């Protein structure tokens, strides 16, 4: 039942205004560099697993081609594993890298996809990436992989990177930049979670909704869903005023409307990465399911990275259990008087 599915999602989203009491303490450069290097190894293995699966699935490949790919991927994985003793892996990273090549479950690989966003945040925090993409745009994988100038096939490059961080030659961004980026991350995370409650409100308000089913909803959940449109309007206004979003539209966070005008590729001086200039916008509330899934993945995994970076959170935290790092998301904190 649609309403039942929305209730399940809404229950998981009921922490959107929950206060989490963790003091902000920035991890040292060396620890962040280790996270970058370890994640690099994990996601390189993620790529090798996809290469193996793709080769096996392509009907146009003959047995000789598949064997050639298998040998090259096996060689690359062997080189990758040689670099493992240099870094400190998490339990999830160790479990994946310890699994025989080609045997990592598809569900595990799917769950790891968002870690590109977590790696992107850690790489950005060290100043190795000039800007962080908007929360409706994924980090560019090649840029993330090349930013630290390390290669899994050359363990010496990893050792040199970690040594440079240990010696203070890879400084962490200033606290003010990190705090602002965290606030933006929490705002977009809140908006992604709020989308579930907005969908629940629309379902309950629909004349075709069974009123008996609606009455079965917990009162607190009904009340929160009933006010979510007003909360979104306030959050959009506050986020725009605090420069946490670039644009609001119809009392909501604005996202690209690619259905009417695909983004125009552009480049910025000093940054070779191709960007997309948005020429048409729409409210977040009109996001397609695919767009919402992508923005949810981005916001959860970036905030998970900030949770590790600026507090005592576990890097491997379940993305369903990600929460605010600030005592309360900045969009709900009292505004500072000028």
List the helices and strands and how they pair.
Blueprint: H1 2-12, H2 29-57, H3 63-82, H4 91-98, H5 106-112, H6 115-125, H7 141-147, H8 155-166, H9 175-205, H10 211-215, H11 219-226, H12 228-241, E1 254-256, E2 264-268, E3 271-277, E4 281-283, H13 289-310
Antiparallel strand pairs: 1-4, 2-3
Helix pairs in contact: 1-9, 2-3, 2-6, 2-8, 6-13, 9-11, 9-12, 9-13
Summarize the structure.
The protein has 338 residues and is mostly helical.
Keywords summarizing the entry:
single chain; 338 residues; mainly alpha; two-stranded antiparallel ribbon; 5% strand
Number of strands: 4
What percent of residues adopt helix (DSSP H or I)? 40-55%
Average pLDDT figure: 85
Shape: globular
- Order the strands across the largest sheet as they lie in space: 1-4
Task: Count every helix, treating DSSP H or I runs of 4 or more residues as helices.
Answer: 13
Tell me about the largest β-sheet: 2 strands, antiparallel
Q: Using the CA coordinates, give the radius of gyration.
A: 22 Å
The end-to-end span amounts to 50 Å
Structural class by SSE content: mainly alpha
Q: Which oligomeric form is depicted?
A: single chain
**Uncertain segments:** 10-22, 265-274
Name the beta content range: 5-15%
N-to-C SSE string, H for helix and E for strand: HHHHHHHHHHHHEEEEH
Overview of the structural elements:
By secondary structure, the chain is mainly alpha-helical. Helix content is 55%, strand content 5%. It is built from 13 helices and 4 strands. The chain has helices at 2-12, 29-57, 63-82, 91-98, 106-112, 115-125, 141-147, 155-166, 175-205, 211-215, 219-226, 228-241, 289-310; strands spanning 254-256, 264-268, 271-277, 281-283. The strands form 2 sheets. A two-stranded antiparallel ribbon has the order 1-4. Strands 2-3 form a two-stranded antiparallel ribbon. Strand 2 and strand 3 form a beta hairpin. The model is unreliable at 10-22 and 265-274 (pLDDT under 50).
